[in-house]
TrEMBL record:
PANTHER family found in the cross-reference section: N-TERMINAL ASPARAGINE AMIDOHYDROLASE (PTHR12498), PROTEIN N-TERMINAL ASPARAGINE AMIDOHYDROLASE (PTHR12498:SF0)
Pfam families membership: N_Asn_amidohyd (PF14736)
MF terms in GO: protein-N-terminal asparagine amidohydrolase activity
GO biological process terms, semicolon-separated: ubiquitin-dependent protein catabolic process
Annotated source species: Cloeon dipterum
UniProt protein name: Protein N-terminal asparagine amidohydrolase
Any one Gene Ontology cellular component term annotated for this protein: nucleus
Length: 315
């Protein structure tokens, strides 16, 4: 009994199987979702930002001089998970698409606990954002598995915000649209706000290639991309399968790519196809990353410079 809802800890048989059941039984989530949605969307640049891409997570602490905002966006059918310890302020964010979730959640909780050692007061709070009411119910399946993963963990986690499903959906022209595509978290205060990000950090096409090609089981992991003790962004090492016909995909129209490579083609942000094309070009030019990108099986490390940019650390 480790997921805590407004009425207290829930037994396994009481765990809601979908968001509609959750909101029906606990209408207070509608109020907290409305509060989030009432906050104007902020456009966030690179200064102080640690951006987390799909199938990645990061955890840090309030006194981290390199990171003041954790953020992620472009979540349509994906779910954004925010975990925070109210005593230490240690906070993490993950962008989950259905793969590797249980291991990710276990590791995030472990990181939060490690960074909160010595704090006798405080509890772990959970916020879930994104995952609109998509036609194929991808988001509902992710929500169910996220709740199951948290419920299996021995640490009590309070679900304080759930802006998912119908609460994160509007209808325009007969089409369901997400109201919030992304959020930022102020690492000093724990404030969560709707956000878009103009800079998404280094090596975006490489990082996207992990989940784009599917393939080996290792690619199903959700990667921890940040070491808060060292203040360093960490990419890799990882491998991915070569993508047959990447050159043919690049010859297709934007609409063809959108319709065939997205789980939510009607509601993707405007830059989606450009991002896909950059990823396809990267895969085509680097079909064997273990050989050409991570030849020594070492991560790529980045550190903030005096201007706030992520710059590579050479060894």
């Amino acid at each position: 009994m480790v997921v805590v809802l407004p009425g207290g800890p829930v037994r396994p048989e009481e765990l809601p199987s979908d968001t509609r059941t959750l909101f029906m039984n606990h209408p207070s989530y509608k109020d907290s979702a409305s509060q989030l949605l009432s906050i104007p969307t902020k456009v966030v640049g690179q200064m102080g930002l640690l951006y987390v891409q799909q199938r990645e997570f990061a955890v840090t602490v309030p006194h981290d001089k390199n990171v003041t905002i954790l953020g992620t966006d472009d979540a349509t059918t994906c779910i954004i998970v925010v975990l925070r310890h109210t005593g230490s302020g240690a906070v993490g964010i993950a962008h989950l698409d259905g793969s590797g979730m249980e291991e990710c959640i276990n590791t995030m909780i472990q990181r939060i606990q490690e960074l909160s050692m010595g704090y006798v007061e405080g509890r772990v709070e959970l916020q879930l954002i994104g995952g609109y009411s998509d036609p194929r119910n991808y988001s509902e399946a992710i929500f169910y598995n996220v709740m199951q993963a948290f419920h299996k963990h021995p640490v009590e986690v309070d679900l304080t915000l759930c802006c998912l499903g119908e609460l994160n959906t509007t209808i325009r022209g007969g089409i369901h649209w997400p109201l919030v595509y992304g959020v930022g978290v102020n690492t000093k205060t724990g404030e969560i706000f709707p956000a878009n990000f103009t800079d998404k950090g280094p090596e975006q096409p490489l990082r996207s290639a992990r989940y784009f090609t599917g393939g080996r089981q290792v690619n199903q992991n959700v990667l921890d991309i940040y070491d808060s003790n060292l203040g360093m962004l960490r990419i890799g090492p990882f491998n991915y399968e070569p993508l047959r016909g990447a050159d043919l995909w690049l010859q297709q129209s934007d609409d063809f790519i959108l319709q065939h490579l997205s789980t939510s083609p009607d509601v993707e942000p405007p830059h989606y196809v450009m991002h896909v094309r950059a990823t396809l070009r990267h895969i085509m030019e680097n079909p064997f990353p273990a050989v050409t990108i991570f030849p020594d099986n070492r991560p790529h490390y980045y550190r903030r410079d005096e201007h706030g940019n992520w710059v590579p650390v050479r060894y």
